[in-house]
Design goal:
alpha/beta, TIM Barrel, 8-stranded parallel barrel, 39% helix, 13% strand, globular, binds zinc ion
Amino acid sequence: MRDFSNDHSALTLNTATLGHNLDGYGAGWPVERMIDACTERGLGGIVFWRREIGNRAVEIGERVRASGMQVVGLCRTPFLVGPLAPPTRQQVMDDFHASIDMAAGLQAPVLTIVVGGVIEGSHSMTDSLKTVADIVAETLPYAAKAGVKLALEPLNPVYGGNRSCLVSVRDAVDMCEAIDDDHLGIAVDVYHVWWDTSLEAELKRTGPKRILGYHLCDWLADTTDVLLDRGMMGDGVADLKAIRKAVEDAGYVGPCEVEIFSANDWWKRDPGNVLDVMVERFRSVC
Ligand code: ZN
């Protein structure tokens, strides 16, 4: 297991941590200021959300690399199925392709897929997952051509109804096995997997080539909002070292991305202070 106590070069900011992904939250720092603040603190990379990039993907990607960091990834595809997905399959595919194009423009190696909730009226996680697998398989040649890998991110089961019918690492690994494509893998997010006692075995089953990302935050024992009340690492109940050990024992040695949605706490703080605390916690508790 890597020692981060004196080295945070693997630390990556997911810009959601500064509140930029939702209107009305965060300090409103432009992309350039976020890049500079991360560079000053010695971070290794940054992960953006599409809303921040607009039509400036190439320019922003170059700026990140000129600063000495990497664009580690892009969030995210549209929801592919369920109540929050675009209304038609064609619209899903068009937006899926647009998200791949943006990742390619940034030279982001990984695009995260949040698959969407159970298909309305189906009452079936299984059928919903089959449709997800069809859409992903159909899109993989486009992603491969663009040089972008797709990371299925299983979400906490609490989101099964609206945001993700993919709720376990087991099902994500099964989908990867079934589709079996070099450009498909999974993203492991502490918020979504901290409860899962089969995590270690499932990650070993899939192996290092398919683990495309590791996301950090914490689960607050008395969380007030499952979407927007994530904790800073060390403030919650997740066994952060054990989870990272499971990820690294499976062979992952890539970036560690801090992704904290926190409308009433961290998004209200000065972003510079948030970044300073993030670095300190990364070195001490992750
Ligand atoms: Zn995540």
